[in-house]
Structure formats: structure tokens, C-alpha cells
Amino acid sequence: MKQSGAQIIWECLVREGVDTVFGYPGGAILPAYDAMLGYPIRHVLVRHEQSAAHMADGYARASGRVGVVVATSGPGATNLVTGLATAMMDSSPVVAITGQVGSALLGTDAFQEVDITGITLPITKHNYLVTRAADVAPALREAFAVARSGRPGPVLVDITKDAQQGLAELDWEGAVPSRHLRHIPPFPDEKELAAAAELINAAHRPLILAGHGIQLSGARAEVLSFAERGDVPFAITLLGLGAVPATHPLSLGMMGMHGEAWVNHAIQEADLLLAFGMRFDDRVTGKLREYAPNAKKIHIDIDPSEINKIVPVDLALGGDLKAVLEALLPLVQVADRSAWLDRIRSWKGDSAVRDIKNLPDEGHLYAAHVMNDLWRLTKGGAVVVSDVGQHQMWEAQYYHHDAERSLITSGGAGTMGFALPAAIGAKLARPDAEDWVVAGDGGFQMTFAELITTVQEQVKVNIAVINNGYLGMVRQWQELFYEGRYAATPILSPDFVKLAEAFGIPGIRVQRRGEVAEAVARAREAQGTVLVEFRVEQEDSVYPMVPAGAALHEMIRRPAPSAIAETGSDPV
Amino acid sequence: MSHVLVVYTDDEPGVLTRVASLFRRRGFNIHSLTVGPTERERVSRMTIVVDADEILARRAVEHLRKLVNVLEVQQLDRARKVVRDLALVRVKAGPEIRSRVLELVQVFRANVVDIAEDSLVIECTGNLEKIEALVEMLRPYGILEVGRTGAVALARGSRAGARRTLATVPGTDGPQTMSV
Questions:
Q1: What number is the ipTM of this complex?
Q2: Contact call for A177 and B171, based on CB within 8 A
Q3: Which chain B residues have a beta carbon less than 8 Å from that of A307?
Q4: Rounded Cα–Cα distance for residues A162 and A99 (Å)
Q5: Searching chain A, which residue's CA lies closest to the CA of residue B69?
């Protein structure tokens, strides 16, 4: 039986296990929307296509399943660009389906025609221009396979209007994809595994760099077995938070530009770094020439192009992290590295005194306090979707993520406006989870139109807007590196409580520490979305901080309490 | 330093754009790039000469392997390869100097493929150094135009490495989708 290309699209999505898509209709995608009503797929209407892409991304990150976004041609498609780039940078499996003008009009600058496959070429794993109904199924099947295989990422399928309207047989079996299997990295051989084990067993100060790949590979148990067996502590990247439990005795916390001092010192002092599914982003290495100067390095990653890209390594084990660790584990000797762990602990002692949590509580509201309170009040059990900026770093420092997929944030791309739409996607992927958006006043204003989407779609997300009246992270850089010239960083916000009311959502304003608990409780108890605005200290900065271009140990520390400053003792 | 990469791809629209875009984005310098059909249907072969050190060249290989349309990438051994470039050179050659130009053509085992009143078109095949040398020798006579193909290369010896590998690459015989 012949079907239209439009019907084949939905038939394929159903067979790929898709239950929800995020999108916005328009002329060139109308045949697909018309056919949609006949299929058991929920469509979430967004207010801007960028948000739809972030929702699909959030859906994917929360669940591990492929997120799907649908948009029309021209501006509908170009609005996806930021969302696709965000998913690409963070290896998130997303399939974008865009309508395109009829194939006869391609290349004629027709109404709402853009070359979206050309535009998205460098920000997708692959993309397709489909001009015949018979090509829809092969393209879509392969798109899903490419998106979820190897190192995951976004794929775009651009389908002309006539390909949606034309008729074809759906040959599901004939469309079985194989090209995504072309370049599976060769699994490490016994010699390589033995060489790795030798380095590990001989190391006195080994350190695991735990990255996003642990999550993507599902290697949590293997990483923990490895760490416990060898008594090896682990430092975590921003996207690795939650992949391994923050409160594990061997967990040191986040590394990098805003990592804790003891973590970065441990990296600089280590004699062996074990990079597990991470890519040595410039935000975690600092100045490369002085990065981990004492350490041999072993890199395990599924993407061979990441090996030796930034940091030259002594040994690379290509492949899926879980499988590689399974093979490596029996070769790793049980060890006691308490001398090394004690040394790290001694650095930690100093940092604990400097911690902002130890500041006298004068009723002022600090974002770090809000994050820490939120962690305690939700018993660490929420899925937090953070935006980009200071609040994102405070969240990473003070909300201790133990559960997998419990932090969703734009790491590589640093996309402001990500949090609210990504949280909507995350909530729809895992309806039973408690979701918290943590956003700054700047980023939140980029995509807050999606508040009404939470109402129309009856999706409950809790929203914490950390309002300091500035584009805070940029302001911090201006304060530290541009002599305090605040060019274009003071930002006015609407009255968030009234704004929430206009959307039919309860809004709560919190100005003192003592009000945090009640506001969080009210948000959690409410049926629908609640917006809580936290008016925090305006010119607060995130510490520690490794200035751009500085070595990892050259941190700007948190100001020491005066007692410590007077004695001048600084063990680090 | 230059490295020669041989890239087998699906013969589909847009593949060249993907490869070129990758090189541009990652900052790899292309010295020359040639593309043509192979002995296998629906498979194209590119010869890419990159200006890069060993580490960068290897990284280019790994990035190329991530392209869905790429079947196989080989980095040709520095010593064991045949590299050929073809040049067409239009050179001034009035009657008074024509014989000297023709002598050069002979020495370089090149061919004259077109003669006009005051100029010749010379066709020369060889490795990059030979072509550069011919062009340098002709320069004093007045070069009017040069067209070059860029390098085409094969590994020396009997190993039919590429063909053996290609037979095991998934998706070379299956149904093709329109892929840009």
C-alpha cells in the first residue's frame, strides 16, 4: 500500500519509538503536520523554533532517547541553528525534521527557501535533503542511527514539500541503515590494555577525569568499580556531574575554571591522569603548556578525533568506555593510595574554611546559598536544568548531583536561554522527575516565552530565576579583567512576579535567606509551573577562578576569612 | 610538510562540500584536491595533499573518518607511493625561440598539444617537482597560462589495500539515500 511521504515520516517516528516531538508548523511542513493527527505522537507547540530544538535536546539528555524537533523551511529552519549547535557541542542525540520548498523550486530563492543542509553542515553529525517520498524512510532510519550511535549528536533531515506529498511504499526492512557502522574504532588489543594497566598499577597519584562519556556510555558502575578497586579519586567535568555520584568518598568535585582549588591542585600534582569520556575542553585545562606537568595520560574515548587533539597523551584506548573498562578492570590491582588521598584532603581543609557557605549569615541572599538550600530542600533528588553564567557555576558547585542525568546544562556551546525549554523537554521525557530550572535574569529573558508552553501543554517545571541585575559572568570578567568598566552588563528585568501572573503562573519573590525554604516548598507543592525570583547579591563573583590563559593552579581563590588572612597560613 | 590522503567516498551530491568544509573548519591547509570515479560504482576517490605536520595529518584522517559519506581514508606512506600531477602550460613561442622550447619539451618528456602562431600549449605529467621544474624553465620565455590538476596518488606495491578494505565497509551496496 502506498503512503504519502508525510505519512511515512510519522510511521518511521513511531517505529523508532518516538512518543513526543517539539515543533512549529508552517507552509513547507504543512503536509507532515496534516498527516500527524493520525499517529500516536504528542506534539508540543513552542513559541520559537530555537526552544523546540532545546526541548528535543533536553528530552534526549534526560532520557538517553533521541529527541525530535520539527520546523518549517526558511526562518523556521534557521531558528534551529543555535539549538543544533548546542546539541552538537554536547553530543546530544537529536533528529531535526524540516520542511523544504518543492524540489522544482530548489535553488530559485523561492519563498521561505534557505539552504538549511548547507547552513547546518558543520553543526550536525550528518544531514539529508530528501526530494522523493521513497527516500524518506531510508533517510530517517539512517538519521536516527547516526544520531544515537558512536558519539551521539544531532542530525537534520530536510524534506521537500513534494516529497511529503508524493506517494511511495514504505520499505522498512529495505531501509535498514548501515553507513553509521563504517568507522567503529578498533577495540584496544591486549598489549594496549596491558600497557594501560601497567601505568595504572605503577602510579602513586592517579586521578580519573570523569566526563560526559560516562553518561553516554552507561559506564557508571564500571568507573566506580575501577575507582574503588584502585583507590583512585575522580575529578568531574561540568557535563560529567551526575554521571558519577558527587557524594562518593572518592569524588573530588568539579574541575576546571571554576573547579574547587583542591581538585585543580590534584590535577597539577597527579602522576597519572585517566581521561574517561572527556575532551580536555579549554575550560578544564587552563594554560596547556602547564597542564598536569607531572602526569602520564591515558585517554579513553569513543571518538578517535579527540585523541591528541588538545592534550598529547601517552596512551589512547579507543572505544566505548564501558566495554574498555570491563576489559581493563581485571588487570587493575587492588591498591591503597591513602597517602595521595590524604594529601588532597589537606588542601580541601583550607578551601572548606574559605567556602561561601561558611560566610556569616546576615540575611543577605547569595546565589551559592540558594543553590545549596535547593539541594538540601530537594534532597538532591531533582533534575536541575541550568542556563549559562554565574548561576550555572554556583549550581555546579553547590547542588551535589548523585543521580545520573540529574544535571542538564549547555556546556560546550554555553547557550543562554537553554534552561527553560530544555527543562520542558526533560520533564516530558521523565514525567515523574522533579524539574528545576535554574537561570539568570539575562538568559531567562531570552526564552521566557516558553512559560506559556508549560501552561498550554500542562508541563510542570519549577523555575528559579537568580536575579542580580547584571549579566553576571560577563560583569565578573569586566570587574576582574577590564578594570570594572561595566559595558552593557547592567540589565533591567520585568517584574517577574507580575510576568508569571500574566502567564497564569504563580510567581514568588525571595529577597532574604530565611524565605528560601518556604518558596521552594510552595513551588514543589503546586500543581503547575511556578516561578521563584531570587533577588541575590548584585556584584557577587564565582570563585575559585582560573583566569583565561592561566595555568590550572593559578586560581583566584575565594577571599579568605580575616582570621586566616592574618595568620597568613595558606597551605596551597 | 605535505601528506597525501586518499579518501573513498559515496558518489553523492555534496560530498565534496562536506570534505572541504571539514578542512576549512578545522584549519587544515589543502595544497591540492582531486576527485574522480573509481573502479567501483557509486564510489568516488579523492586525493588530498595537505600541508600539515604528522600529528595534524593524522587528526585530519580521524575527522574525515567521522563523515558518514566517507568509506575509507588512507594516509599514503611517505616513500612508497606514486604521485602524479598534470599541467597544461601555454607559453610564448615565436619562431625565433620555438626550437628551444621544443627542446625543453623533449627533455621533460612532455607533449605539445596545441600550436598557435606565437605560442604553444605543453602537456606535462609527473610528480610535483618535475612540473615545478618545467614551469620554472619555461618562465623566461613568457608563460601565458598554467592549468594544473593537482596530485593523484596510489600506493606502490601489489597490495590492493583499498579494494580489500572497501569490500568490508558497510553501506556501499545497499540502497542509497539522497544525501547532501
A1: 0.91
A2: yes
A3: 62
A4: 10
A5: A179
